[in-house]
Amino acid sequence: MKEIRTLLLNDAEVTQLLSGEHIYLVEKPEKIDCENYIIYKYKPLSGGIIKDYQLEFNLIGKDLSKLLQLQNRLITLLDDMQAINLENIRYIKLLNGGGMIKNPDTSNYHIILYFLVKTH
What we know:
Blueprint lengths: L1 H8 L2 H7 L4 E3 L11 E10 L4 E11 L2 H15 L10 E6 L4 E5 L4 E12 L1
Parallel strand pairs: 1-2
Antiparallel strand pairs: 2-3, 3-6, 4-6, 5-6
């Protein structure tokens, strides 16, 4: 999954919308202050030679319009990604589910995306 994070960090549009390299595994470090950021998590669905994972992205921030642009960019980069050459990734596909919500405690918007990832 590091390869996917690296792919996103190498995309100028993603880093511009995030105002930096703000993509974190599981949670954002408390000491880092940023307006918009991405949290990603993954879980195995099946094993064997070809492994399936569910990859979850949480896009978090106060500017909903930037988060929606970020959502569109992630879908453009990752959905049905067979043409991009990543060493261990065979296939990525956007899954149903996800959605958006506003956290009343922090006033942050959360957009959630799920992808199916096949690795070897």
